[in-house]
Amino acid sequence: MALLSFSPARRIGLALAVGLALFASLAAARELSVGELSVSQIEDELQSCPLVESLNEHKRATSPQTTSLTSKIFSILFPGSPAVNSLLATVYISGPPNFLLALCPPNIDPSSLSVMVAFAVGGLLGDTLFHLLPEIFLGEDSPDHVRFVMVEPNRNLLLGLGIMVGFFTFVAMDKTLRIATGGEGHDHSHSHSHSHTNTETAVTSGASTFSNADLKKRKSAKDDGSTTTITTTTTTEEEKEINPSVKLGGYLNLIADFTHNITDGLAMSSSFYASPTIGATTTVAVFFHEIPHEVGDFALLIQSGFSKRKAMGAQFVTAIGAFLGTLIGIAVQELGGSGSSAANDPDTPFVGLLGTSLSWGDMLLPFTAGTFLYVGTVSVIPELLETGKNKSVEIRKTLVQFLAVAVGAGIMLAISWH
Predict the structure, then answer these.
(1) Cα–Cα distance between 65 and 277 in angstroms, integer?
(2) Considering all CA atoms of the chain, what is the largest pairwise distance in Å, rounded to the nearest integer?
(3) pLDDT grade for 234, boundaries at 50, 70 and 90
(4) Rounded mean pLDDT of 45-64?
(5) What is the DSSP letter of 204?
(6) Can you tell me the distance from the alpha carbon of 113 to that of 118, in angstroms, rounded to the nearest whole number?
(7) Mean pLDDT, rounded, for 273-300
(8) N or C end: fewer C-beta atoms under 10 angstroms in the chain?
(9) CA-CA distance, 402 to 395, in Å (whole number)?
(10) SS3 category, 44
(11) Residue 59 near residue 145, CB atoms below 8 Å
(12) What backbone phi and psi angles, to 5 degrees, belong to 207?
């Protein structure tokens, strides 16, 4: 705010003057009590005060707005309304990561993605801490005028409750999956083992496979001098025997991915309805998270007996969940509205959740922040904490991971700063 450029004494005087001006303006402009006005309506009334108008002029003079390269890129990628931009963002986070799976070898080791996972952690936590949480509790700064934050009873409590509900929704999902798979969680490492039951040790030579019993028969035949022909079965490809619990884990993983993608879609819609900047940065954070997430799930499906083509197809099917979540979020925002939409109808007092200025649409962004906190901490951090026995290798690996986290968070900070 422009008030920060004044001395402390003058700031206090201006704050008192603003309060008096607000009271006088409201009393003169309309015979309504402050309780009958929404927060947005009070904000509009404030902007008409002469003192606030002078503060706006001071802000525009001292903080000229410049269009950065990032803003230009975002304006090209997201040129429409919040609903259109939400759908475009869902296409961006769902399409490219899935198409990249065509370049992945079927035997890829998910643990090799630790650096990318660390980068995604930095991006998710950076977006949550630098963008989502400030937006949730304080709103976004306006380039044209000064903003005032009103402390409203129980409003912050409901926002905090929304964050907690989002966090524990993912706790419940993860716990349910662990119970269903017998203790194997849904994480990026996907450390699932295959059990192959072999009753006899096979000795492979070229394309022919002989069991120990066949070798003994052939040896006894030579000793007897007989001309009996030993027929062996040649197999070009041994069919893998997949443990049923591993197959079940693969299908349950698809269900968890579908649900996870729904929350990604909700994140797209809630963030774009909050502001274009928040929507764009959330898209970037989710995009970088989806790459290691999709590759790890792809590797798990391969281990569960899927072919490469079927695994890719299954990942595209789960991507439908993101579009479903986006459409649900758009419907909630358009039908449920938000506290700020009450300003469009000044003659109708707005009554929000539990007597606050919040609506159901306003609760989507806190829910998204809660899910991001879970994914960025509980779901992913344990993988980064895994260590091996070689200390020197682990130290170098840790340094690289921390650097990747710093880069991911730094990108979010730079976008917010500029």
Answers:
(1) 15
(2) 119
(3) very low
(4) 78
(5) E
(6) 9
(7) 88
(8) C
(9) 11
(10) helix
(11) yes
(12) -95, -5
Distance CA 285, CA 89 (A): 11
Given this model, what pLDDT does residue 194 score? 38
396-407 pLDDT per residue, tens: 999 999 999 999
Residue 64, pLDDT > 70, answer: no
Alpha carbons within 13 A on the beta-carbon side of 28: 10
User: How far apart are alpha carbons 203 and 200 in whole angstroms?
Assistant: 10
Which residue matches tokens 């400030």? 134
Our measurement of the distance from residue 36's CA atom to the centroid of its chain's CA atoms, rounded to an integer in Å, reads 37
CA-CA distance, 402 to 115, in Å (whole number)? 9
Residue 110: other Cβ atoms inside 10 A: 22
> Helix, strand, or coil here: 202?
strand
**What is the per-residue burial (b if ≥16 Cβ within 10 Å, else e) of 234-250?**
eeeeeeeebbeebeebb
> Could you give the 3-state DSSP secondary structure of residue 205?
strand
pLDDT at 300: 81
Residue 379: pLDDT band (50, 70, 90) is confident
What confidence score (pLDDT) does residue 199 get?
37
* Residue 327, helix vs strand vs coil: helix
Check pLDDT > 60 for residue 34.
no
Residue 8 has pLDDT above 80, yes or no: no
Pairing of strands 202-205, 208-211: antiparallel
Neighbouring C-beta atoms of residue 378, cutoff 10 Å: 15
Q: Considering the entire predicted model, what is its pTM?
A: 0.70
Q: Round to whole Å and give the CA distance between 295 and 308.
A: 12
Q: Using CA atoms, how far apart are residues 92 and 95, in angstroms rounded to an integer?
A: 6
Q: Tell me if residue 225 falls in helix, strand or coil.
A: coil
Q: What is the DSSP letter of 37?
A: S
For residue 88, how far is the Cα from the chain centroid? 16
